[in-house]
Give the backbone structure.
Amino acid sequence: MISPLAYVDTKAQLGKDVKIHPFAYIDANTVIGDGCEIMPYASVMAGTTLGRNVKVYQGSVVGADPQDFRWKGCKSHCTIGGNTVIRENVIINRGIADTGGTVVGADSFVFAASHIGHDTRIADKCVIGNSVKIAGDVVVGEGTILSSSVVLHEGCHVGHFVLLKGGTRVSSNVPPYVIMAHNPITYYGVNAIVMRKHAGFTEEQIDDIAKAYRHIYQCSTSLYNALLRIEDDIQPSEVRDAILAFVRDNDMKIAGNRFEAD
């Protein structure tokens, strides 16, 4: 169903069973996957690809021009994974170069009035709460929940299965499997309920994660020594190694208050 009151450029590629409501705008050089629905006054801009069954609500702009002075008008890209829901008045910017681009993974939910900046990469099954602001070049891991009004500054890396509580401002890297809250951002434990009920983590895995973060956040030692203690105290496993790799791959710069010994 394509309303005659919608604008659909002749160079747009539309899949099967697409619904385009009145006053929606579909730009040239876009791909709208099978089963997508674009609500009134929503816009899908050039360079955007929507996977299957994506729904874009009123007032949202998907694939907007990047808000970065480095962008000089070249073609760039925005990709939305299948079964993702984009609620009202969301803005998602394209990338700033003709390679890569902005990605929102499959089976994700972007709540109203959120903003996702250029070249940000959000993995599958994430929840982006109301009025969340994500700057450019941010990475968000699978299964992560950003509660309302969270702010992620440019270049931050947030690991898998993280829960950031409402209003938290992040200017560093948040390691996987944790809950963090407040300003300044503070470690509040392991995201056990989500991991147990929705991601199939075992009790042994959750215990290993909790042990690792006791060394990092609760033992008053340097981060370097905390990682050595984790290697000595916890048997090698997927979750232990993911924590160690995240910290080291991000130059030992992680968010959350740590109290190191003098």
